[in-house]
Amino acid sequence: MLSGDAATFLGHSTVLIESAGSRFLTDPVLRERLAHLRRHAPPVAREATRELDAILISHLHHDHLDKRSLRQLDPATPLVVPAGGGALARDAGFRDIREVRAGDEIRFGDSTVVVVEADHDAGRGPRSRHRAEPVGYVVRGNRSIYFAGDTDHFAGMARIGEIGLDLGLIPVWGWGPKVGSGHLDPESAAEALTLLRPAVAVPIHWGTLFPLVMHRVRPDALHDPPRIFARCASRIAPGTRVEVIDPGERIELG
């Protein structure tokens, strides 16, 4: 690998991004069970969670900011969280907390993390007072890697595309048999590619968390979304190459 840039899909919205010698972990959910959701992907390898330069949190929902998962990580690691999420980060034991908004940039070694917009619910849940405007991130090292977090389709994606994206980590589903509002489904995710224009797209946010026993009723919702996305993208956004990788697999950018 010449560039030193890569992404390992660890399941749901958790990705290890390697950029110009730095390591970033997104939205870590490392448990086998999260409330009524059970993990259907392989366990996250410990090697993927060590020697991190930063942890990037996109928004406050429990399947993206999971305090019990964060407590499994080194609390000295810088934790980047949308403005308003600092208290939750402190509850998880972290000491170096960077609260950010769209437009901010943070330097880590030879990589720059650019904070970008997202269109998603700002709360944590119906019983929580915590709120923070969701964000996405573009990690710029030798290549530019976009992590969308959780988002709906929005016009501002065109501004993100102007950065020049080598890889887009694009959510294409969720954690249940249906996709709720504020999310991309396979077809709307393919439509988003026409604005983002990444050279390569990897579908994420699928095939990992699913309600108990529901996998027996709707197994298609666990496995089909990335393949449907790839078919839609070939029709809607033929300029982007889609690479479907399973949880635990890695893509290298040469």
CATH homologous superfamily (4th level) name: Ribonuclease Z/Hydroxyacylglutathione hydrolase-like
User: Termini, distance in Å?
Assistant: 5 Å
Which bin fits the share of residues in helices? 10-25%
Main sheet: strand order: 8-7-6-3-2-1-17
Q: If you average the pLDDT, what whole number results? A: 94
Q: Which series of helices and strands comes N to C?
A: EEEEEEHEHEEEEEHEHEEHHHEE
The best one-word shape is: globular
Give the oligomer, counting copies of the same chain as homo and different chains as hetero: single chain
Beta-sheet strand percentage?
25-35%
CATH level 1 name: Alpha Beta
The strand count comes to: 17
Count of separate DSSP helical elements: 7
Which structural class matches the secondary elements?
Answer: alpha/beta
CATH topology: Metallo-beta-lactamase, Chain A
Outline the low-pLDDT stretches.
Answer: none
Largest sheet: 7 strands, mixed
Radius of gyration: 17 Å
Going by CATH, the architecture would be 4-Layer Sandwich
Taken together, the total number of domains comes to 1
